Structures are given as C-alpha cells and as structure tokens.
Amino acid sequence: MLKQLFILLYKLIAEPTSTWRSLAERYDEGNNESFYRNYMFPIIGIIALMAFVGTLLALERYDLSMALKSVVKQVFVYGGSFYLSAFVTSDFLFPQAGLPKNRPLAERFIGYAFALSFVIAMFTALMPMFTMFSYLIILYCFYLIWVGSSYFLHIKEEFIVKFTVLSGLLIVFSPLIINFLIELCMPGMKIK
C-alpha cells in the first residue's frame, strides 16, 4: 500500500498530465472511502511520524512531550488545511468556475493537488533545516493545479487561470495560516 502511495505521489509531481488523466478515468462519483483509506490517512500518518522522529532528532535532549506536540500540530495543520481547502473549493471556487458544488470531487482534487505540499511536509518534518528551501519548490504547486483543473475537473479555459490562482493560494497559505493560529491560540504547541 505504501509503495503505491509513494508511486502516486511521485507520478503526480513528475508526470502530472498523465497522472491527472488516469485519476479522472478512475474517479468513482461520491465514493471517497478508498481515497481516504489509501491516500489521505496514510499521508497524514507519515507526516506525523516524520514530525515525531524529526523532533526527537532535532532536539539536544530527547523530549517525548515535544515530539508528541509536533505530531498533534502536524495532524491539525495538514488535516485541517485539507478539509478547509476542500470546503472552500467545493462551496466557493467550483461555482465561480462553472461547476456544481461537489464535496467528494473537491476532496479528491485538493488531496491530489496537495501532493507536493505533503512531500515537502514529510521532508521538512524530518529535516527542519530545509524549510526555507521548500518555499521555492511550492510554486510548482500552481502548475499541478493548472493541469488538474484541466484534466481532472475539466474546467473551461476561461476559468482556469482564476481557479488555479485561488486554489493555489489556498493550498499554499492554508497550512501556514492554520499553523499560525495553532501557535497563537495554544502557545504550548510552538515547537522550539
């Protein structure tokens, strides 16, 4: 299962056009159970595991409470970002792009569009010293959304630019905003 997950992540990043086409052909209307079981939950779990290990390795002394805080924070940040982005996409961006509101379709699209963000989160959770470099790579996310909106969502050409920019901003900034809110509301969650 994990091998297939990493292959899918690789293909979404390295071969987005053919991968989005393949995902569109395999899309099962309204049934996201296998999507969650085989894609979303394992990715969030891997990010959490990497955060646990990365926090233990980064600290001068082993502090289990800090590692567990890091796990909880990453689950909130990336799980919350996924759900927030899927909600906004389905209820606000789909109607602007001429599509009907469709939460299962939005969840799949956002989940796959987050592929690069998830991979970056895995690496930066394990090796926090590469965080600044990851901000440059995240711009590729806009291209992934552009291709996905064409081949997976079949958005008309006149709406693609606006949809790509708004979805891209949502995917790029929602983890940062949720992370900021967590640290603001719960100062104990700030990883030193």
Description:
- It contains nine helices and no strands.
- It has helices at residues 2-14, 16-25, 33-58, 64-96, 103-113, 115-126, 131-137, 140-151, 157-185.
- It has one domain (2-189).
- The termini are far apart.
- It is mainly α and 192 residues long.
Name the features.
mainly alpha; globular; 192 residues; single chain
Give me the secondary-structure topology:
Elements: H1 2-14, H2 16-25, H3 33-58, H4 64-96, H5 103-113, H6 115-126, H7 131-137, H8 140-151, H9 157-185
Uncertain stretches of 5 or more adjacent residues = none
What is the N-to-C succession of helices and strands? HHHHHHHHH
Q: SS-based structural class?
A: mainly alpha
Counted up, domains total 1
The share of residues in helices is: over 70%
Described by strand count, sense and barrel closure, the largest sheet is:
none
Total strand count, please?
Answer: 0
Q: Please, what is the average pLDDT? A: 90
Shape: globular
Q: What proportion strand?
A: under 5%
In short, what is this structure?
This protein is an all-alpha fold.
